[in-house]
Amino acid sequence: MSITAERAPLNGVDTPTLFATLDAVKGQPDIAKFQFRATNRWISGTHNQSTMHTFFGAGQEMEHKHPTVIDADHPAVLVGQDHGPTPVEYVLGALAACLTSGLANIAAARGIELTEVTSTVEGDIDLLGILGLSDSVRNGYKDIRVSFTISGNAPPEKLRALVEQSRDRSAVFDVITNPVPVALDVTVV
């Protein structure tokens, strides 16, 4: 059974293509298997650059329209030159971006027109763990809080439900809240 619905694009989301994609994946579940990648290069000190360009998806190698290069560094108070956000700040940005993207898609699929969506993500981290000064303090965030402000042409409970469903379907929320096996490999040249 097709889940395609006759809807015009909404909130900047190409809703017909969204439903067509859902139908395609429903018919061929193997095309849902994606592999995203990032490469990184050390520059100096705590400054490094990551590049996101190629990925595997829909059964084939693909690439973004152009490579995206992001700088990461530490601020001066953490012995860096502040060429970019810290890596842990990118985690917060990724969480906000994933939740917002999902929210926009879900709103469009439900026919809800959004007029504003903003969010603030805060993470509390104790450097005693990263600096190796305490074995009882974890290296990463101990708490993360996300606050959304949202408005649109739906009752408040339906707008809140958009955020809840986006959280339930967010890949980044899942990565942050559930353990993921991470394999490290080292080549010495």
TrEMBL record:
InterPro entries in the record: KH_dom-like_a/b (IPR015946), OsmC/Ohr_fam (IPR003718), OsmC/Ohr_hydroprdx_reductase (IPR052924), OsmC/Ohrsf (IPR036102)
UniProt cross-references to SUPFAM superfamilies, sorted A to Z: OsmC-like
A Pfam entry, by short name: OsmC
PANTHER family from the UniProt entry: HYDROPEROXIDE REDUCTASE
Protein name: OsmC family peroxiredoxin
